[in-house]
Amino acid sequence: MFLLRLIIPDRPGSLGVVATALGEVDADIHAIEIVEHRRENGTAVDDIVVDLPPGVLPDRLVSACNGVPDVEVIWFSRYGAGGGLHMDLEAVEQMTSAPADAIDILVEQSPAVLHADWAALLDGTGSEVKVALETSATPEFGDMAGAWLPLEKATTLQAPDHKGLSESVLVAAPLDSDRRVLVIGRRGGPEFLGSEVARLSYLASLAVTIRATA
């Protein structure tokens, strides 16, 4: 499974031309996400999750996209099996079905959504920072629980030299406060992609909004 982030002309038919080009190299498109519309120059940034059959070189994906006029590959990387957008939708459905528990549901579902190993909700709104909720396999934070607070926006984090955390790559997002933060870890990588940070930011904001409707 691979993820391509592309700049394409923001006009009807552009995505179809890219899809056709990918199909010609036997790529199977699993998901497409519009990351950003750049109205100032008439382009859009799209993430495309694709799968390749055995024997097809990944470089052919980049070549196929670069062969489409006015299309630019920003970056290209292997991606967790199964894509991501359908997992996002499942998480949103669960949150909307139980609005009062939306934040807890996001914490519990985020490892599956982002193909990670663990997630923890850090709460520093009181006199001390505590782990308010965690999934299985979450390492001990110890004194590091408050190292990233306050946090203003979703971002990747530098893993500290701390047992259990040093071997993980980390991403985090604030929830209903810059001192209530969701931290997600992958042991040994791969690094979280920019699109994954953006997805986490969106889902965190959505969880807060959904809970407010309870």
UniProtKB/TrEMBL annotation:
Domain ACT span(s) in chain numbering: 3-76
InterPro entries: ACT-like_dom_sf, ACT_dom
Protein's UniProt name: ACT domain-containing protein
Organism: Kribbella pratensis
